Amino acid sequence: MTDTPLPQRPLAATPATAPLPFLPSPGQRRVLSTAELRARGVSAAEAGARCRDGGPWQRFLPGVYLLHSATPTSEERLHAAVLYASGAGAARAMVTGAAALALYGFAAAAPLTALERIDVLVERTRRLRSSGWVRIVRAAEPPAPREVTGVPVAPAARALADALAQITDPHTVRLLVTEAVRDGHCEPGALVRELNRARLLTRPQVVDAVDTVLAEGRALAESRLYEMVRAESLPEPLWNVDLRLPGGPHLGGVDAYWPEFAVAVELDTRSPRRDEDGAGGGAGPGAEWTEHSRKRETLERLGITVVHLTPRKLRDALEQQAIVVRTALMAAGDRAPAAYVVVLPR
After folding, report:
1. Segment Disordered: which positions (predicted)?
2. pTM to 2 decimals?
3. In a domain, 284, yes or no
């Protein structure tokens, strides 16, 4: 690999192979845009001369140059893709899709060296086309990027949605979706919202993978709820019960109930799919959310305190959630007696 310094004199006086004053150090990026070269005193004509056959540089992408003649590394390809998509201005561009999953360390994702294309996310209004091995993906409002190994990368949920748009194999889809949630790359709600935005929830392989992950997520949250009660020495509740008024209507199911305290715990594991434009077979927009709110309001009118816990809170702050439940139990004596309800196994 040959590193070549940048010229500070006109091309006519400086042959393309002549030594030049500027030499990037081993730690410096060797992928530069036309604007960056110009700022260093290198004209487009000079850069073009150095990219001719047998020259020391390569024209990597439109407006992007590689300052050596060897095979580019994966890191150089990533930087070049972002430089190309960013353009001459300060437009936001970030790696997404399969390349982003590889940067996040997804075991089920293809390595960077195996990718023929790199997807880059830009604002929808940009006049920019895919070029060479860079594929442009557009967003009405691009998310805030995260920096991974010095490269701006789309959040995991968005990156996975862009990757799944190109994948049809059900096994690969299931592996990626499961890994995204199970390994904490993104929350199920964020992932489902991105999949819904990308209209991928009409694909059977994606729907099956999401349903499996949501079911696994609920089972794991229930396990953590059991752990919280026992590890924090809370009174043992009645688990997974239905509540009804005597001779009256069904009030709804809860995950844990302390009848002597009139306190219920409900895990909020609703599928966000059904709260987004009625997707996923819900009765309509927000149908599941409406039912969820109705149940809570009904129980609280009867004097039953409902504590809502999310899988994320149980995972990240189990002790704090135990304090919330314990506080609700301790406050029972200060409340008016709750209505009598019938408790049935669910």
Report:
1. 1-25, 270-294
2. 0.72
3. yes
